[in-house]
Amino acid sequence: MFKRRTLFVVGAGASAEVNFPVGTQLASIIGQKADIRFEEFNKPVGKGDIDLFVQLTRQLTYQADEYQKAGCIIRDGVGYSQSIDDFLDQHRSNDIVNLFGKAAIVKAILEAEKKSKLYIDPAKSRGPAPDDWANTWFVKFMQILTRGIAKEDVDTVCDNVSFIVFNYDRCVEHFLAYALSRSYDIYEDHAMSIVSKTPVIHPYGLVSRQVPFGQTSVNYFEQSKGIKTYTEQIHSPTVARIQDEIKKAECIVFLGFAYRSPNLPLLTSGPSTPRPIFGTAWGMSDADVQVVRSKLRSSFAPQEPDSSPSLQIDNKLKAAGLFDHYAMSLAGGD
């Protein structure tokens, strides 16, 4: 179990462990989906997602050529941004680019869910076994979460954890519900009710939880209404929820997070008591790790510049490795 209230801040690198695309990869996928070109009036010749394009043009009032132009803007420009979020924010005044881009995000995420290690094929009588996910942080997290919690107390298993997920995917909720149902031999509805009471905040939105994980036949435009860019998020009540979780956290763990603006400022809650902070920084230089350390000290203990809380930011570990290396520290000493 986690003996202290622990907040997990989850970025794209954490979902990459189960085969989700990270920021630049997702941007590239969406750029390809937006490559809508025709010859001989209606013969597709680009790499674009024609099904997505047809769905958008059938149900929205703009002309098809306006969507095609928006697709060209995305195709030709998104590769110069670190993420699709950055690109859509650059074009925040272009409604059509944002409609197309957000619908493409939804389809790309649902397709990634279906291709991921976490996808559970409803046609199969048996779902994945723990060994199928053994080398991911999800299972390692679960091993700490459930230690010492009896089935009779399963409703309390998530009482000391919360999540801020900066991804559009639903990996955390999906995995938790499935793993709890198998680990404790409880009905999936029971497991889902436990997860529903666990704070899992998506600052930039996500596909509706009513859509099955990996379901690719949906109304992409309707689902895109739940997707936000970081400019749209700034005034959202979600910010208050985030800051509340930050204030209550006795330990903060960053998994696959890039520590970039504008995401990191969202996590600042004002003066706070120093507490243990752990984080991955896979592939980051030692110099940049020092920059991250300085940012975190400033964000989470601005009134204690000389204090030395446990601050472990490791550029040699991915999310799974962090749980291996700091298992007792993350659990709170057990």
How would the blueprint of this fold be written?
Layout: E1 6-10, H1 12-16, H2 23-33, E2 38-39, E3 43-44, H3 50-59, H4 64-77, H5 84-90, H6 95-115, H7 137-146, E4 161-165, H8 171-183, H9 188-196, E5 200-201, H10 220-224, H11 230-233, H12 238-248, E6 251-255, H13 263-266, E7 277-280, H14 286-300, E8 311-314, H15 319-325, H16 327-331
Parallel strand pairs: 1-4, 1-6, 4-5, 6-7, 7-8
Antiparallel strand pairs: 2-3
Helix pairs in contact: 2-4, 2-6, 4-6, 7-8, 7-15, 8-9
Structure, described:
- By secondary structure, the chain is α/β, with parallel strands linked by helices.
- It folds into 2 domains: 224 residues, 3-Layer(aba) Sandwich (Rossmann fold), CATH 3.40.50; 93 residues, no CATH class.
- It has 16 helices and 8 strands.
- The chain has a 6-stranded parallel β-sheet. It has a two-stranded antiparallel ribbon with strand order 2-3.
- A hairpin with a 3-residue loop joins strand 2 and strand 3.
Mean of residue pLDDT values: 90
Number of domains: 2
What is the percentage of strand-forming residues? 5-15%
Q: What is the 3D form?
A: globular
Give the strand order of the largest sheet, numbering strands 1, 2, ... along the chain. Answer: 5-4-1-6-7-8
Taking pLDDT < 50 over at least 5 consecutive residues as the criterion, the unreliable ranges are: none
SS-based structural class?
Answer: alpha/beta
Reported for the largest beta sheet, the result is: 6 strands, parallel
Q: Give the end-to-end Cα distance, rounded to a whole number of Å.
A: 9 Å
| Rg over alpha carbons | 21 Å
SSE pattern, N- to C-terminal: EHHEEHHHHHEHHEHHHEHEHEHH
